[in-house]
Design goal:
single chain, alpha/beta, five-stranded parallel beta sheet, 7 strands
């Protein structure tokens, strides 16, 4: 019972409970891993949870972090690691934060000692596939080598699946081999529209076996888009009048109801903000006197969406 209690206390401390350091003589994670997984991991998770929306994704990342921490404990105790793949599939429409979360995950993996560098390399079909025989494998290996020690993020990964003689299949085979040869220091995240990603996963048995963890990036609600829009305004040094905020909310509600798979989400909020800046500039340059408040306030008449 005493041994069980010590093990529980150790696990509790490792999973983030506050308190003193583990006593001498207890089995514990390596000092290097402990040092890398405290403040930096807390900061990274805090950054994740301050993002607007993404409730399901945040929950999945919390589960993933707990899993990785336990794998670290098992490794320190000489136990075989679990066979669950660390590679990920991100489902979602454009502008839902997939790249941002992938970047945070690359640092989280590194903070826990599962990646040596923790950087992110973004690519797509054009970064992996060449137009000549034999060149695609070279191009794909170069991208993978650049990402080694971090995360390789492949956006619209389903575009790699083409016709029988398409070079995309060569890229997939090269990618799978590199993943196997470097499985201890590379994480691959494939991303794209939900319906199209299913075809990608089913196109090759090797893909399906290596990608077993999924995260669903849902479209932002009108309230969440309003919050993102307000964030852009704040970052740009602007405040919103009540009328401007209400009008922006109405635009988000209308566009949300009409959305399809091309809906831009946060990108749409960014585009609206940029259009507001143009209308704001047009308005105040017509004034006889420009006050500081005019320079930093977006009014209702500045908020207009031109699609």
């Amino acid at each position: 019972a005493q041994k069980e209690m010590e093990a529980l206390l150790e696990l509790e401390g490792f999973l983030g409970a506050k308190g003193g350091r583990l006593g001498a003589g207890r089995a514990r994670v390596s000092d290097a891993m402990r040092n890398r997984s405290q403040d930096s991991l807390d900061d990274l998770l805090r950054d994740l949870h301050t993002l607007t929306g993404l409730a399901t994704v945040k929950h999945e990342v919390d589960d993933l972090v707990a899993f990785l921490k336990v794998q670290g404990i098992r490794k320190d105790r000489g136990m075989a690691p679990s066979s669950i793949s660390r590679h990920l599939v991100f489902y979602g429409n454009p502008g839902t934060g997939k790249t941002t979360v992938a970047r945070l995950l690359s640092k989280i993996y590194a903070s826990l000692g599962f990646l040596s560098k923790g950087h992110l390399v973004e690519t797509e079909r054009s970064g992996l596939v060449a137009g000549f025989v034999g060149q695609t494998s070279i191009k794909t290996r170069e991208a993978c080598q650049q990402a080694l020690g971090g995360v390789l993020f492949i956006d619209e990964a389903y575009t790699l699946v083409g016709k029988e003689n398409d070079y995309g299949q060569e890229a997939i085979e090269t990618l799978l081999k590199f993943m196997e040869d470097n499985r201890d220091d590379l994480v691959v995240v494939v991303a794209g529209y939900p319906d199209k990603m299913a075809g990608f996963l089913n196109s090759n048995p090797g893909i399906r076996s290596r990608f077993t963890r999924f995260m669903n990036f849902q479209d932002y609600s009108p309230d969440e888009l309003s919050s993102i829009f307000a964030g852009f305004c704040k970052e740009g040094g602007f405040t919103l009048s009540d009328g401007a905020a209400a009008k922006a909310k109405g635009i988000f509600e209308e566009q949300f109801l009409q959305r399809d798979e091309t809906f831009g989400n946060a990108r749409f909020a960014r585009n609206l903000f940029e259009q507001c800046l143009v209308r704001h500039a047009r308005r105040i340059t017509k004034a006889d006197h420009i006050s500081d408040g005019m320079l930093t306030t977006l009014e209702e008449e500045d908020v207009e969406w031109v699609g």
